[in-house]
Structure formats: C-alpha cells, structure tokens
Design a protein that fits this description.
The complex is a heterodimer. By secondary structure, chain A is α/β, with parallel strands linked by helices. Chain A is built from 19 helices and 11 strands. The chains are: A alpha/beta, B alpha+beta. Bound molecules: flavin mononucleotide (FMN), iron/sulfur cluster and FE2/S2 (inorganic) cluster. Iron/sulfur cluster binds next to helix 16 and helix 18 of chain A.
Chain lengths: 448, 179
C-alpha cells in the first residue's frame, strides 16, 4: 500500500501543535510569509485555481473560480467567512482539525483573505463547539501577538482582523446565506439567490464563504504550488480529503486520504475503517453525509457497470441518482447487515424536519409529512400506498425550495426506497415481526 | 422547525448583568464594525445562559437594550436556535445526540437510560432539579458515538463533550462529575 500524502493532518499528532511555537517549528506560517511578501492577491488566486481545489463543505465547487467571482469593482469592503458550522450528520472532520490544529485554519484564513483582499474575516463556528471556539481564540491571540494578524502583517503592508463568531444550534446555518444571516445576528433563514454572496453577502458586501477544510488546504498550495496539489488525486478530484468514518466499522475516525483510494480499500483496510465491526457483513453506506443518497453494499464498492468505485467526486457519482451517490462532506456512514433501513431513514427524516427553517412550504410541510409517514411504517401502521406517497412527497420538495435543504431531505428518503423498497414492503406486510426489538429484514435488497 | 417552550415570566434578578457579563458583551460587540452590533446577539445569549442557566424574557430585554435593537429581534433569534433554553432547566442539561449515525451505535438506548437514571423525562427537569435530558441533533462527534455535551460551571460555563458513552460511564459521571 502506497503511503499517502498528508496535507492537513501531517503534524496533527505532534504534542503542542495547537501552540504557535510548535506549529511554526513544523513549517507553520511559511505560506503567510510567502504569499504576503512575494505574491500578489491575483497570483494566490491563480495558484489555487491551478491546484484544482474544490470546496470541501459538500458541493465541491472549484475554490479558485469561486474566489474570482468576488466583486472587486464596487469598492465595497470584501469579507471571507469560514464555514465552521459542521452539522451534517456523519461529518466530524472540521471539529477535529480545528480542535487539534487551530493554527492550520488561521494560517489558511490569512492566505485566503489576502487573496480576496479582505481586511476583516470571520470564522462562524457552530454553537455546540464553544470549547473549540476558545481554542481558536487562544490561537488568534497568539497570532496577533506575533504580528501575523492586525495591521501591517509581517511588514507586508497588508492588514487583517480575524474573529470567531458562534452559532446557536441550527443545522441550516451551514447553508452559506443562512450562515450570513446568522452572522448578522438574525434567524438562519436562507436568502434567495441571486444575488450570490460574492456580490451581496455579509451586510450586503461581497463575501466568500468557504469550508474549514478548504481554507486549511491553501497554505500547502502556496508553499508547494498549485501543480503539486493537482498532481495528487485522480482527474478533477485533486488533492486530499478528510473523511470522517462512523457507524458499524472497527475504526471510526477521521482519515486524510488522497482522492482516488478505492472505496473497498477504504472500508476494509486496517489503514482506514478496518472492516465491519463484530465480523458482520456490510449492508449499506451513506458516503458523504446524511444528505447524499444511500447505496447498498453492491453499489458502493462497484458501480452498476461493474467498475471499482473510488473515493472521488466523479466515481461516487457514477450512475447518477439511479445507482450512484456523492462525495459530499466526506461523512462516511457505514451500516452492517443488522441495520433497519426504515428506522435509519426515519431518523434522517426527523432530522430534516427538525432543521427546516420553515420558509418554504414544500420543505416545511414535506419534511414533516415524510417523518410522519416513516414513523407510521416503522411502528407497524404503514399502508402499502405510503411508499409511493413518500416518493411523491420527496419529488415535490426537490427543486422547489429556496435552499438545498429541501433536496437534502428528499434524497435520503427517495434513495432508501429506490434501493430498499422490499424492506419497506416487508415492514408494511409484516407489522408484527417488523416491530419486534432488533427486527431486521433479511431478504435481498432490491436494486433499481 | 420545532416549537420550544418559552417562559414569559419576568425574572427580576435577570435584569442586572454582572460586570463580567457586561465585559463579555463588550468584547463580543467589538468584533463587528460600527453599527453592526446586532451581530453579537448570539454570543451574548450564550453568555447570558451561562450566567443565569437559561434565557428569560427579562434578560433578553436587557440584551436588546445593550445592542440598541428591539426586544422582538432578540426573542426571534433566541427561539430559532435550539441551544437556548427559554425556560428554567436542571442544573446540568445533558444534550444527547439522537441522530442517525449515533443511533446506529446506541443513542436511543442511551437516552432512555439517562432519563431512567436521572428521572428527567420529556425535556422536563428531574424532580431533584439536577438534570434536564435534551435530545439534540448531530454534534459532529459521530465517530465517537454515542455522545452528549454538557455546559459545566467547573469549566467557566464551557461545554464539554462526552464520547463513546456506555452505561457504567454514565453511572460514574452521575455519581462523581455532574454534582
Ligand atoms: C442545509 C445545508 C447545510 C450545509 N452545511 C454546511 C456545513 O456545515 N459546513 C460547510 O462547510 N458547508 C455547508 N453547506 C454548504 C455551504 O452552503 C457552502 O456551499 C460551503 O460552505 C461553501 O464552502 P466550500 O466551497 O469551501 O465547500 C451546507 C449547505 C446546505 C444546503
Ligand atoms: S428549503 Fe427548507 S431550510 Fe431551505 S429555505 Fe426553504 S424551508 Fe428553509
Ligand atoms: S450523529 Fe451523533 S454526533 Fe453526529
């Protein structure tokens, strides 16, 4: 097995890496020196474009391109906001990175803010991570004291102020326009787009919102060059990605992989998940956080065409929604043969209903309806037409809402029925058996 | 979207903010440009909850005053975000993750066990006033499931995560740490 390049986690186990001194001993802040003293903001953007880095928050949008959309003509102040809201079920990589190595994010914020010519930037962190916020704030104080933040950073003439702002418990604030509303001190109701944040974002000024992991990758790109980053990975999936693996595996945790590792290797190799726990068999995987379609075991390791699936944006999406899924946030949720798919789908539906901001009726009503129907099926009161009813409700939410939470709520339900319809039917036909504690359908999962 | 209980009772001792709380509010407000002080509302609400244990209407009115905004602008924010408790709670609020990945590794059983051990059912404080068990959504600790977080006075009001929980650990925490 080839050793994998580590970009984000190379020094994460070094004792004291959360302090400026130790972080610097391991090459920390070299990218700030290089970018601010020897490069123009445009040159930094170019390097990130060359790297092929794509947003690690879930959508995978090319970062350099996003940066080039920011309005530099209006003369209004520009802001960089780091999305540290990490609330997508199955995702726990940003908390890990920020808590263990806060300076990785701060260095990235300086380099990225410089590229955008922003002089005021924020890290918006979910309220549940107040302890991590203290760690970041301590590191920020150190950075100010060392002249890495504030006025005239390292004598370069560039000024930047950086603050951390907490949320208050709301998944929807991970959506970038809801995040901006929240940062303005309001309820997290997503905005209609356009205008996009790059034109009118925080306080109606040009704003870029990027995920923690995206921003933390930029110092390496500046130090080593965009081409070196692009040389890692496969095709348009360049560089490394943090995958947070959880569920029924032997070794849950955060793994930094070079994009392109075969899914099968990721699940079974001791270097990563270490196989399914208790010697059981794999039943299903949700590969990129709860919002992406679930896939049964046969389709997660191989595509419908029989090719090996790789941990890349493209390979996981192979087959579209009929037989594929998405890399998403990298929240890799593994389910063993004893998992009840109806129960799991109900749990996700309850989550989206709870987290819907309530602005659009298809999402507000539809998520509640799906939760109710799934609860009915799970508790043995389902009716056969409930299955098509769920498909219908999901279809009516999808694409008809202000923000993508509606889609994110629809996909898990639609895909569970697509791939595990037999199991839903069994629940409805055998209410007594299905509601016994620990009851699980053992038949063959139907594959569309 | 969910409805949370909201106490409208005035609580006279929440009208006065300590110097430490006012200083925290000042620091929070200073993070934002002139005229954008409203942005500090969430951080200040966390500090208020830390000071008084929950967020009363009286305290929210005082926050509105500090930020020069209307009281309704504070109420609508406080009621949107699930971390703010808008009525009195037990001394320790156990925010237990109930979402899918944690459910796969025993979250529901943990919630039942916690309710049973503490006597705090359905979000209400336990009869001895020590606990509230509050099921919450994914805490970004799914690999260390099941898990919960608690705000601890011992940590100056910071939240502490407890991960990979099992029944003996919960027993020990109840006996020794959450007292
Ligand atoms: C409902 C919803 C929740 C989201 N949650 C997060 C999140 O917790 N963290 C994150 O980085 N992006 C999240 N996103 C994606 C953001 O809207 C945005 O695309 C991302 O922060 C952009 O950063 P990136 O380009 O670096 O990925 C969410 C999107 C939606 C629709
Ligand atoms: S889709 Fe749902 S979460 Fe998004 S704006 Fe509409 S109601 Fe709110
Ligand atoms: S599902 Fe419980 S922490 Fe993520």
């Amino acid at each position: 097995m080839a050793t994998q390049t580590k970009i984000l986690t190379q020094h994460i186990d070094v004792p004291g890496i959360d302090t400026l001194a130790v972080y610097r001993q391991h090459g920390g802040y070299a990218a700030v020196e290089k970018a601010l003293k020897t490069m123009s903001p445009d040159a930094v953007v170019e390097e990130v474009k060359k790297s092929g880095l794509r947003g690690r928050g879930g959508a995978g949008f090319p970062t350099g391109m996003k940066w080039s959309f920011i309005d530099r003509k209006s003369g209004n102040p520009r802001y960089l906001v780091c999305n540290a809201d990490e609330s997508e079920p199955g995702t726990f990589k940003d908390r890990y990175l920020m808590t263990r190595s806060p300076h990785s994010l701060i260095e990235g914020m300086i380099v990225s803010s410089f590229a955008l010519e922003a002089h005021l930037s924020y890290i918006y962190i979910r309220g549940e991570m107040l302890a991590t916020m203290r760690i970041l704030e301590k590191a920020i104080v150190e950075a100010y004291a060392a002249g890495l933040l504030g006025k005239n950073i390292l004598g370069s003439g560039y000024d930047l102020d950086l603050f951390v702002a907490p949320g208050g418990g709301a998944y929807i604030c991970g959506e970038e326009t809801a995040l901006i509303e929240s940062l303005e001190g309001k309820r997290g109701n997503p905005r209609n787009k356009p205008p996009f944040p790059a034109v009118k974002g925080l306080w109606q000024n040009p704003t870029v919102v990027n995920n923690v992991e995206t921003i933390a990758a930029t110092p390496w790109i500046i130090n080593n060059g965009g081409e070196a980053y692009a040389a890692i990975g496969v095709g348009r999936s360049t560089g490394t990605k943090l995958i947070s693996a959880c569920g029924h595996i032997n070794k849950p945790g955060v793994y930094e992989i070079e994009l392109g590792v075969p899914v099968e290797e990721f699940i079974y190799s001791d270097q990563y998940c270490g196989g399914i726990w208790k010697g059981k068999k794999l039943k299903a995987v949700v590969a990129g956080g709860s919002s992406v379609p679930i896939l049964p075991a046969q389709l997660i390791t191989k595509t419908a065409a029989g090719e090996n699936r790789l941990m890349t944006y493209e390979s996981l999406a192979e087959g579209g929604f009929a037989s594929g899924t998405m890399l998403g946030s990298g929240g890799f949720i593994v389910m063993d043969e004893d998992t009840c798919i109806v129960r799991n789908t109900h749990s996700f539906a309850r989550f989206y209903h709870h987290e819907s901001c309530g602005q659009c009726s298809p999402c507000r009503e539809g998520t509640g309806w799906m939760e109710k129907v799934l609860h009915r099926i799970e508790t043995g009161q389902g009716r056969m037409h409930d299955i098509d009813l769920l498909v219908d409700v999901a279809k009516k939410i999808e694409g008809n809402t202000i923000c993508p939470l509606g889609d994110a709520a629809a996909w898990p339900v639609a895909s569970a029925i697509r791939h595990f319809r037999d199991e839903f039917i069994w629940h409805i036909e055998h209410p007594q058996e299905a509601t016994q504690p620990g009851a699980v359908y053992r038949g063959e999962a139907a594959i569309a | 979207m969910s409805a949370y209980s909201f106490s409208t009772e005035k609580v006279s001792e929440h009208a006065h903010f300590s110097d430490a709380l006012l200083e925290k509010a000042r620091v929070a407000i200073a993070k934002y440009p002139e005229g954008k002080q409203k942005s500090a509302v969430l951080e200040i609400l966390h500090d208020v909850q830390n000071e008084f244990g929950w967020v009363s209407v009286t305290a929210m009115d005082r926050v509105a005053e500090l930020l020069s905004i209307q009281p309704i602008e504070v109420y609508e924010v406080a009621s949107f975000y699930t971390m703010f408790n808008l009525e009195p709670t037990g001394k320790y609020v156990l925010e237990v993750c109930r979402t899918g990945p944690c459910q796969l590794r025993g979250a529901e059983e943990l919630i039942t066990y916690l309710e049973h051990k503490t006597g705090a059912h359905h979000g209400h404080p336990s009869p001895d006033g020590r606990f509230t068990v509050k099921p919450v959504e994914c805490l970004a600790a799914c690999g260390m499931a099941p898990c919960l977080q608690v705000r601890l006075k011992q940590l100056d009001g910071d939240y502490k995560y407890y991960e990979n929980l099992d029944e003996p650990t919960v027993d020990r925490l109840i006996a020794e740490e959450w007292i």
